[in-house]
Amino acid sequence: MRGLYGTGHGKDGQHRGLQPRHARLAVAAAVAFIDFVSETHRYREASEPER
Question: pTM, whole model, 2 decimals?
């Protein structure tokens, strides 16, 4: 995200970049992904037959 929207990499001084709402979206998406992966792991762990 920094490369595309940040102020680095030769951007001019007029570049606006991202807003706080974009950061909130990125965090919320990451949380949703981790919740999904964690729940899937717990589901699979519970579904495994005893060894």
Answer: 0.66
Rounded CA separation 27/33 (Å): 10
Q: Is 18 exposed, middle or buried (CB count within 10 Å of its CB: 0-12, 13-18, 19+)?
A: middle
Percent of the chain predicted with pLDDT > 70: 67
String of DSSP letters for 1-51:
-HHHHSS-TT--TT-----HHHHHHHHHHHHHHHHHHHHHHHHHHHHSPP-
Do residues 26 and 1 make contact, with C-beta atoms less than 8 angstroms apart? yes
